[in-house]
Design brief:
The complex is a heterodimer of chains A (263) and B (468). Chain A contains 2 helices and 14 strands. In chain A, α1 crosses α2. In chain A, strands 1, 2, 3, 4, 5, 6, 7, 8, 9, 10, 11, 12, 13 and 14 form a 14-stranded antiparallel beta sheet that branches. Helices cover 10% and strands 44% of the residues of chain A. Chain B has 468 residues and is mainly β. In chain B, the strands form 2 sheets. Chain B has an 18-stranded antiparallel beta barrel. Chain B has a two-stranded antiparallel ribbon with strand order 10-11. In chain B, α2 crosses α4 and α4 packs across α5. Classes of the chains: A mainly beta (263), B mainly beta (468). The interface between A and B is large, with 52 and 57 residues.
């Protein structure tokens, strides 16, 4: 069980499920919840852009922050394409990352533009466990397909932070996942994940995701602030999303490896 | 300044860059004549990129650069006077305007366009000239010494196919130093270096520096549209692979130099300690050297290049391959005579990344001229292995260790460049970032190789970088 794999699972189970599950009065099927989530991109919309601020605080390391512009578009072949372009701080400014989801079991394609090299590099699929530009997120965190490979408990009702939720437990079926289970609390009023808890192979709590704030963005519920806490290191990554724009049309040409170097 | 004004005037969607570098390099061996014992340089780079409209971007960047060097007291055979040097230059960096409409992209301005998939030695990275003023690229250098030059790039990008067309209206040579630094091109040939020092002694101090334009960029092609260069690249990306093919119709940036026969005889005499010939020929050649006369005739030749490169993601690795064929490429034989020969340049490589802590790149590359000869720097064939490993120890926050190495496979030649860098944690995330680095450059090789020619340039360096 490596930290990167833990991060992978937590973020897959939170960032991506969080935004997509539809609200429903009836108890939904767990697999349907997950399947619905994974048919959308990581930011919960078919196409659009948002500014994302990642703040890493706590633990025994100095605070870090990354600000990036995320753009995503569902491609003609069905998979989502996401471009993350770093705005600050200076050591990562100008770097850009492209994630192209591949259908079926094929590994997703990833490309990284490094302004110091003036070159776009392909990133190997197995390098997804590596940290993404010094953040707590791995390249794999930008995917969500892995959560399909899990067995789900029946969905039950629960109340969390005074919010009615659906509770579902996912047990990954892939040995490489490195986690034993993920407990999700999904808000019944808007389908957002209120909390996600990841347990390690020894069934101890490893990480916890918590939704801190949400709002209607262009008519749909979206998280505006959330945080991920790592129990062992005491470190927390705070995620703030603003300037969401799902209406300005995006061009497929902006989601190609050759476009990464072009602002 | 312009970049800063734009950054200040455009509040939204503008990214400003400010960076200051200061470096000090000390020669470790000073085992060659007229060496630079201590070299210092600073670079202040200011830039901004702004979105003028949803479809139009403007990027401006400029650098103020200073450098200075102190020579060693020892000179060629103790004859020529030692001298220090200092210079300051202001340079326009990348400066371009881009516009997009649907799948079409148009970029106009001073650009850097890097093709190919290799990080360390890319046969298909041909479009921009290099800047060798501070010597050849250091092993594993992350910041390639590439010059932005005027060009127009038009692209058609779609999900699975990209087409790029580039037109460069003017010829732009490599930048370098011919005579006045430890990395001067003339130091590739000991007798030539000796003759230049002799020129300084007999004609006038620093007289050899007046030869630089003649030696570096003799008779460049006229700045005329018919002398422009054109290139095209087509690529496709699929599940786990990228494949590109390209063709360039450009100028060979290595000139074909033909040296005055009497100067050649003089160089041979200097190499062979033939004092009688030296004294007989020098009075005849010296005046031509002194007034920058036609002791060297040179021209750049048109050249065609076709190349293919690919990258595959296989498990934890990215495997890379490149090959380029040039029907006529300018090389020099061991007698310093230019040879135009069909040449294949190739490279194979792999990248490996383990979390953010460790990354490794290994590349093999080579040059295979089809015309039989022993070539300056390359021998009959050239192949080398190069690699760079970067490690950020989890226990040492802000520390980055880099080890870069290069080893010839067809000759005895190698280079090693370990570096340690440290960026202290910042109290606030938007505070200035300071980075301190220290490193070594150690290189050696047999005569006729690049590492051998510059083997006396072993050095230790300190570097400070401030970025905003």
């Amino acid at each position: 069980m490596t930290p990167s794999r833990i991060t992978r699972w937590v973020t897959c189970a939170t960032l991506l499920l969080a935004l997509a599950a539809p609200a429903s009065a009836e108890t939904p099927d767990a697999a349907t919840l997950v399947a619905t989530a994974t048919t959308r991109n990581g930011f919960g919309f078919e196409q659009g852009s948002a500014r994302v601020r990642l703040s890493m605080i706590g633990g025994d390391q100095a605070p870090k922050e990354r600000v990036l512009r995320a753009r995503t578009l569902r491609s003609g072949s069905g998979g989502a394409r996401t471009v993350l372009r770093f705005l600050s701080p200076s050591e990562v400014q100008g770097a850009a990352f492209l994630l192209i989801e591949q259908p079926g079991d094929a590994p997703d394609d990833m490309h990284l533009y490094l302004p110091a090299l003036k070159r776009t590099r392909r990133i190997a699929g197995s390098q997804k466990d590596g940290s993404f530009m010094g953040t707590d997120f791995t390249y794999a965190d930008l995917e969500y397909r892995d959560i399909k490979a899990a067995a789900y408990s029946p969905v039950t009702e629960a109340t969390l932070d005074a919010a009615p939720c659906w509770r579902v437990e996912a047990r990954p079926t892939t040995a490489a996942a490195g986690v034993s289970r993920v407990v999700l609390h999904i808000r019944r009023d808007n389908g957002l994940i209120q909390r996600s808890e990841l347990y390690g192979a020894d069934d101890r709590l490893v990480k916890r995701y918590t939704l801190r704030a949400h709002a209607l963005v262009e008519g749909r519920p979206s998280p505006t602030e959330a945080e991920m806490h790592t129990v062992e290191s005491g470190r927390t990554t705070r995620l703030t999303i603003d300037e969401v724009d799902t209406r300005t049309p995006l061009e497929p040409a902006d989601f190609t490896p050759e476009s990464l170097s072009r602002g | 300044m312009m970049a800063l004004l734009i950054a200040l005037a455009a509040p939204a969607e503008t990214q400003a860059v400010a960076r200051f570098d200061a470096a000090l390099e000390a020669d470790l061996a000073h085992d060659a004549p007229d060496e630079d014992l201590l070299a210092g340089s600073t670079r202040l780079t200011l830039g901004a990129e702004t979105r003028l409209s949803p479809a139009t971007h403007l990027h401006l960047e400029g650098t103020l650069r200073t450098s200075g060097r102190t020579p060693s007291p020892g000179t060629w055979r103790g004859l020529a006077p030692a001298r220090g040097r200092a210079e300051a230059t202001a340079e326009l960096g990348e400066a371009w305007l881009s516009h997009r409409r649907g799948p079409l992209r148009l970029e106009v301005g001073q650009l850097i366009v890097r093709w190919g998939v290799m990080d360390l030695q890319s046969p298909n990275d041909l479009l921009n000239p290099s800047d060798f003023r501070d010597g050849p690229p250091r092993p594993g250098a992350a910041d390639p010494p590439t010059r932005p030059i005027p060009m127009v790039r038009m692209s058609h990008l779609s999900e699975n196919l990209s087409v790029e067309l580039v037109w460069q209206p003017f010829f732009a040579p490599h930048l370098g130093s011919a005579t006045d630094s430890d990395w001067a091109a003339t130091r590739l040939e000991p007798s030539l270096a000796g003759a230049l020092t002799l020129t300084d002694l007999l004609v006038a101090p620093a007289a050899s520096e007046s030869l630089q334009p003649v030696l570096l960029t003799p008779d460049p092609p006229e700045a005329w549209p018919s002398n422009g260069s054109a290139a095209a690249r087509v690529g496709t990306s699929g599940a786990g692979f990228d494949l590109h093919a390209q063709v360039c119709w450009a100028w060979d940036r290595t000139p074909t130099l033909r040296v005055d026969p009497e100067l050649t005889a003089l160089l041979v005499a200097a190499r062979e300690d033939d004092l009688a010939t030296l004294l007989r020929l020098y009075p005849r050649v010296a005046p031509r050297l002194a007034d920058g006369g036609r002791v060297v005739e040179a021209r750049h030749e048109r050249t065609l290049s076709a190349g293919v490169d690919a990258a595959w993601a296989v498990d934890a690795y990215v495997l890379k391959a490149e090959v380029a064929f040039t029907p006529a490429r300018t090389l020099y034989d061991a007698a310093l005579q230019p040879v135009r020969t069909p040449t294949v340049a190739w490279a194979l490589g792999a990248d490996w990344l383990d979390d953010e802590a460790l990354s490794v790149t290994l590349e093999l590359s080579g040059l295979a001229p089809t015309q039989e000869a022993t070539y300056l720097l390359f021998g009959r064939r050239w192949a080398q292995a190069a690699g760079v490993a970067q490690w950020r120890p989890a226990q040492l926050e802000g520390v980055e260790l880099t080890l870069a190495a290069q080893h010839a496979l067809t000759a005895r030649a190698w280079a090693l460049a370990p570096t340690v860098a440290w960026s202290p944690p910042r109290a606030q995330v938007d505070a200035l970032r300071h980075t301190f680095a220290a490193g070594l450059l150690i290189l050696d090789g047999e005569a006729g190789t690049l590492m051998g020619a510059f083997g006396h340039n072993d050095a230790a360096h300190l570097r400070y970088t401030l970025s905003l």
